[in-house]
């Protein structure tokens, strides 16, 4: 190993030696910790030297310079993991993000020549350069996709032990970057420097960083080829995408191991799917969770909750979920009820249920210090609360006053916590909302660094556990609910999270503001969360703090109709904020869009299945459809919802029309059915009662009848909206019971439709997989965009005679749900 190795790039070396210019390791803390004036050792900066030895153990390869080593693991054909051990002793292999590595055998080889060692699979080569230990990756065509711009390096952390770890890669002139979770900035992260440290960021602004979640995963797209880097490190981590130096991309962390996964594309979609292979997907949610949800801080007393619920039914605005914020508790003590406001929660929850509402309650991590409070007493007796380094309790003020905090990184604590939900479940609570779990503490922001965590046996300070605290809290919640609900699917929502949190929860983007700017931020945040593994996400519709006017609220409802999680929420000191609060014309438009949400539930549910089973994100930014076109790297307003519906929220007040880019292919305007050739921008009228929506030609969009809540009535028939195309297009419809885990035993139906047309015909074929039988018998088919007048419609060899012909040249008829092929002939 060499110290301060002469760098091939002198500019870089200067940058590396000047700590203040180079790294943002919380400079104050870093200097304090490592300052010689404090009598502590000076900074030791070390780079990997020259690899002089290579060794293979199974699918792992070790390369060493005599002191430091790196490990290269072939994880799958497309995924290679790299780890660094400064003195060749690797840390224990444990990750909250990646519960286990895929075990499917992969073919790989190790080759060596004068210049390099090379580990190769069928898809990727990992090159380890002999001259300087630079690591690079190339695809099977030999195109280099990622390469080091400096050898990996590290600096000792004198106070805590361990190292600050750094990795610097090149950044190409037109390279773009996406991902990193919920950052409130442009969708393309090129030119940004960002930090991961879960933060309670009330009323955050554009470019504010960090926010509530830490997802250390990014996707690069350069010259049409995508790859991903997942830096699985839970410490405070930093990313620089050509901000300090246009030619370099770097990531570093204040501790832990320099460990990252290189994830090969070549498409962004491949990268995201492979990232899901590592970190998992969201389990299927209960169907009702895809409906509209109403929340406020807080609806109380009980009568207020009933009034709101009735308001939905009276106004005929569909709604499935109603939320109780912290005021339902007794002095904000978790797992208690305020007897004055909610004297009989069981009865209230039952009545709400009879009226079609599921009740969701908030639970925060802070447990009030109070010896007369059973949760505190139990936690204290069992030593489940976090402690400082010298064993003092970790205490801090949150809503209940002085609190202690369970150590959710301890599996025993998680089991205990999960068990605490039994009473709420028994009362009929259907979902749990986890908040303040960054963890947030008034005054200090969060816990001090020295708080200790059990970390599933791989102990660490808060520096290591901070970013996973919220994820482990919602994991405890999800796992507890899963046990108590027997075979029913839990519904959970969390504010904080780390990579992989999607296995346990949906996510909302925290305390946003009722402003047009925040509508834009939310639109970008949801797309970004979606490509960062978190598909089940939504914003506080209307904005949490501040007051939206009717127009802003309605535009937000429109965007929310196409957010995988759709919930309106507002702070308590704001005006009433229900979909009917703004009067007409807003109420009618809000109703129209919430009804559209319910009509499209089978479509969203199918997109969810595609996410759960195959790792597709639900929201797909334009660049994901056409990454080869550079201008698309900067498109961030429009996205597809699933892969068939293109959505472009209206993000400006008073807007009467706006430009929308349609990816290549043919698109139907959802409202007018006018067909437009894609690959171009079009100007779309945006009167308040519509928003730009387009459907891809060849799609089959399934639709349920509008109901006031999911499962209000049995479905008697499913409508299939079929959009003519002259090329072949596949669509899916997923169906099951909607509330159990029977799908894990193959009790579901995955239907595939293939649509293909010519100048004189249109054919729709259907095939099915799975063991579920829906109760309805038939389909109501609607054919849109047919370029000819049909003379005959044949379904499985029989002619259909009863066809309604509409003025807009659409055709409607009914047929059995089990059809194999329908042909429409000129
Ligand atoms: C936090 C949450 C917000 C909630 C409030 C009271 O600010 O982000 O959603 O309403 O706490 O519990």
Brief rundown of the structure:
By secondary structure, the chain is α+β, with helices and mostly antiparallel strands. The chain has 15 helices and 55 strands.
Uncertain residue ranges: 1-25, 30-40
Q: Which small-molecule species are bound to the chains here?
A: alpha-D-glucopyranose
The CATH homologous superfamily name of the largest domain equals glycosyl hydrolase (family 31)
Q: How many structural units, i.e. domains? A: 4
Global structural class: alpha+beta
Distance between the termini: 76 Å
**What's the helical proportion of residues?**
10-25%
In CATH terms, what is the architecture of the largest domain?
A: Sandwich
Shape: globular
Number of DSSP helical runs: 15
CATH topology type of the largest domain: Immunoglobulin-like
- Class of the largest domain in CATH? Mainly Beta
Oligomer classification? single chain
Strand content: 25-35%
Summed over residues and divided by their number, the pLDDT gives a mean of 94
Q: Cα-atom Rg, whole angstroms?
A: 28 Å
Largest sheet: 9 strands, parallel
- Main sheet: strand order: 34-33-31-28-24-23-22-36-35
GO molecular function: carbohydrate binding; hydrolase activity, hydrolyzing O-glycosyl compounds
Family: Belongs to the glycosyl hydrolase 31 family.
Domain Glycosyl hydrolase family 31 C-terminal: 615-701
Domain DUF5110: 718-785
């Amino acid at each position: 190993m060499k110290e301060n190795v002469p760098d091939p790039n002198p500019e870089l070396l200067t940058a590396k030696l000047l700590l203040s210019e180079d790294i943002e390791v919380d400079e104050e803390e870093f200097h304090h910790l490592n300052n010689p004036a404090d009598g502590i050792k000076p900074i030791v900066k070390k780079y990997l030297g020259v690899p002089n030895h290579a060794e293979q153990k199974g699918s792992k390869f070790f390369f060493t310079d005599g002191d430091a080593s790196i490990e290269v693991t072939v994880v799958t054909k497309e995924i290679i993991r790299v780890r660094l051990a400064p003195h060749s002793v690797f840390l224990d292999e444990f990750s909250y993000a990646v519960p286990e590595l895929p075990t499917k055998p992969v073919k790989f080889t190790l080759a060596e020549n004068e210049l390099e060692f090379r580990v190769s699979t069928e898809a990727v080569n990992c090159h380890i350069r002999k001259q300087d230990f630079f690591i690079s990756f190339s695809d099977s065509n030999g195109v280099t996709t990622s390469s080091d711009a400096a050898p990996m390096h590290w600096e000792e952390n004198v106070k805590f032990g361990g190292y600050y770890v750094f990795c610097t890669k090149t950044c190409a002139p037109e390279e773009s970057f996406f991902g990193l979770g919920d950052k409130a900035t442009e969708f393309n992260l090129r030119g940004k420097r960002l930090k991961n440290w879960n933060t309670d960021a009330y009323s955050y602004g554009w470019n504010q960083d960090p926010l509530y979640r830490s997802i250390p995963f990014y996707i690069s797209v350069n010259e049409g080829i995508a790859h991903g880097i997942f830096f699985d490190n839970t410490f405070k981590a930093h990313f620089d995408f050509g901000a300090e130096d246009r030619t370099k991309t770097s990531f570093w962390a204040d501790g832990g191991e320099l460990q990252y996964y290189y994830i090969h594309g070549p498409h962004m979609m491949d990268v995201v799917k492979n990232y899901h292979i590592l970190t998992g997907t969201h389990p299927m949610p209960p169907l009702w969770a895809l409906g509209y949800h109403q929340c406020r801080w807080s609806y109380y007393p009980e009568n207020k909750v009933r009034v709101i619920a009735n308001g939905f039914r009276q106004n005929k605005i569909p709604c499935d979920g109603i939320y109780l914020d912290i005021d339902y508790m007794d002095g904000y003590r978790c797992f208690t009820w305020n007897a004055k406001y909610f004297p009989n929660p069981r009865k209230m929850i039952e009545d709400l249920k009879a009226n079609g509402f599921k009740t969701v309650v908030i639970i925060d991590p802070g447990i009030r210090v109070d010896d007369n409070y059973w949760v505190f007493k139990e936690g204290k007796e069992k030593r489940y609360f976090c402690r400082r380094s010298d064993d003092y309790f970790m205490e801090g003020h949150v809503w209940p006053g002085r609190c202690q905090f369970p150590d959710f990184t301890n599996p025993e604590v998680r089991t205990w916590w999960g068990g605490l939900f039994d009473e709420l479940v028994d009362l009929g609570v259907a979902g749990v909302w986890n908040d303040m779990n960054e963890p947030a503490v008034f005054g200090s922001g969060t816990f001090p660094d020295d708080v200790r965590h059990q970390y599933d046996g791989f102990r660490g300070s808060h520096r290591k556990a901070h970013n996973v605290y919220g994820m482990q809290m919602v994991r405890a919640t999800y796992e507890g609910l899963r046990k108590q609900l027997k075979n029913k699917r839990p519904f959970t929502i969390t504010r904080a999270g780390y990579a992989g949190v999607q296995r346990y929860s949906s996510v909302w983007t925290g305390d946003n503001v009722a402003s047009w700017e925040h509508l834009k931020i939310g639109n970008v945040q949801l797309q970004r969360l979606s490509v960062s593994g978190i598909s089940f996400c939504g914003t506080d519709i209307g904005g949490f703090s501040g007051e939206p006017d009717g127009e802003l609220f309605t535009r937000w409802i429109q965007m929310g109709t196409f957010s995988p999680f759709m919930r309106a929420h507002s702070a308590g000191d704001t005006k009433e904020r229900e979909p009917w609060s703004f009067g007409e014309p807003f109420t009618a438009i809000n109703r129209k869009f919430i009804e559209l949400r319910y009509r499209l539930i089978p479509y969203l549910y199918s997109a969810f299945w595609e996410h759960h089973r195959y790792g597709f994100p639900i929201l797909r930014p334009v660049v994901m459809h056409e990454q080869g076109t550079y201008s698309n790297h900067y498109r961030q307003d429009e996205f597809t919802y699933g892969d068939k519906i293109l959505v472009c929220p209206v993000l400006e007040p008073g807007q009467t029309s706006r430009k929308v880019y349609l990816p290549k292919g043919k698109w139907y305007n959802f409202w007018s059915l006018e067909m437009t050739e894609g690959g171009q921008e079009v100007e779309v009228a945006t009167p308040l009662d519509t928003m730009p929506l387009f459907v891809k030609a060849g799609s089959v969009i399934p639709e349920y009848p509008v109901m006031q809540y999911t499962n209000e009535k049995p479905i008697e028939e499913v409508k299939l909206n079929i959009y003519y195309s002259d090329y072949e297009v596949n669509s899916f419809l997923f169906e099951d019971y909607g509330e159990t885990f029977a799908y894990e035993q193959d009790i579901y139906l995955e239907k595939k439709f293939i649509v293909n047309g010519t100048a004189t015909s249109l054919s729709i074929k259907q095939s099915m997989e799975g063991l579920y039988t829906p109760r309805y018998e038939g389909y109501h088919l609607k054919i849109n965009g047919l370029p000819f007048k049909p003379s005959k419609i044949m379904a499985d060899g029989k002619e259909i005679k009863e066809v309604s012909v509409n003025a807009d040249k659409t055709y409607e008829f009914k047929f059995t749900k089990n059809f194999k092929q329908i042909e429409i002939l000129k």
